[in-house]
Amino acid sequence: MLVFFTYASNLFKPRSRSPLTPLPLTLFYDIPSKKPMSQSTSIPKKQLRVRDHGFDNYMEVEKKTRKVLKFQSLILSQPSHTLPISRFDSLARRLGLGFKENEAGAYLLKFPHVFEIYEHPVLRILYCRLTRKALLQIEQEKEALNAQIPDAVTRLRKLLMMSNTGRLRLEHIRIARKEFGLPDDFEYSLILNYPQFFRLFDAQETRNKYIEIVERDPKLAVCAVEKVREREYREKGFDAEDIRFSFIVNFPPGFKIGKYYRIAVWKWQRIPYWSPYEDVSGYDLRSLEAQKRIEKRAVATIHELLTLTVEKKITLERIAHFRMAMNLPKKLKDFLLQHQGIFYVSTRGNYGKLHTVFLREAYRKGELIEPNDLYLARRKLGELVLLSPRKAKVDRELVSYRRDREGNEIACARRDYMENDIEDFGVEGKIRQDGKGNDDLDSNMVSDFESRYTDGNEDFDETMAQKEDTCVTE
């Protein structure tokens, strides 16, 4: 009996499987996976980019103006500021603009408000020159650039103060000079003209030129976002604890915001961080709290970098030039997509090869909220590019109509003057009896008027002469 109970207990006892024996795969499919939903309050590291058509349309216009600027530089590089159409094809292929044969000249016809094509009076070939509107736009941009040189000095000082060592490579600033509103000769007009602020030297290790700030000014070590927080606190009366370290967040349309994501953003806004102008070399950055502060400091650094630009935008590739000097993360694109409520990354404007970063709070419906003179001057070129070619034809017709009308009035006034003059001399009856004499006299007087008019103006219009003949023969 005892043997029977022992055998029965061993029979019903569960057999232990060897740890080296794998479980059958059917068990993973039979057991339903009941993984609980993640309720983490941290912002996801990887997010899909949600498009904002306002910024993308802005970059489509920028794409056209970028080509137009290259053609403008080609024309202005010539001594006579004119260039034959036949040379545009070879020059466009040399610049890598992507034009096929005989496409560059056809491209210029799309922008009659910027480029004027005419026939050379001697060579009898087609030439191209800039229109009066385009020349006025270039002059206005130069004046705005020269007028804001004191502001450019301040922007360059703040840019150098954000670096760890107080110095930046000259080549990196030269590449981004247009975004920061610096003139082309900023090395001489800004750096060498203000030795009390900047110092230019060559590095012995790399033999690269560097710009170094002479002395840090505590008055300039104030971020633009701090001024915005103060204004929001005074005008809207937010809680001081909530707005102390917060940023203005405007998510793009169509961005899905869940409950836990909203909580994560609220907690991230309250995390303290070090200022971009503060030296963090003396802090212990190994703790988790320090890593969170460094991450938010990188957001503040890019935010301040965008506020120093003229149009509150800069390409991602040019931000990467300052990555080592400003302690920015390696994967900048993923880092910026993590904060789509503060920045917008656009791939339009250069066939997806460049990424342009916008500061969302500075724009509304694709336009800068607080525009400056340099921004407005550059936008005028975009307006000339977007003007329809039909409007240019209408403008030319109006000009020719005014010329015809003025010529008609001058000819009619000349005829009345001749008739009154003939009546005073008392030869009107004799001329009326001889019709041939009337034609000869009128033709002589008109020819004399035409000769004197054409001597003063070489661009004499043939339609004006036809109007004069009709008025005289009447």
TrEMBL record:
Region span, Disordered: 452-474
Single annotated GO MF: RNA binding
Cited Pfam families: PORR
Name of the molecule in the record: Protein ROOT PRIMORDIUM DEFECTIVE 1-like
Organism, as annotated: Durio zibethinus
Bias kind Basic and acidic residues: ranges: 464-474
Superkingdom as given in the UniProt entry: Eukaryota
UniProt domain PORR: residue ranges: 50-388
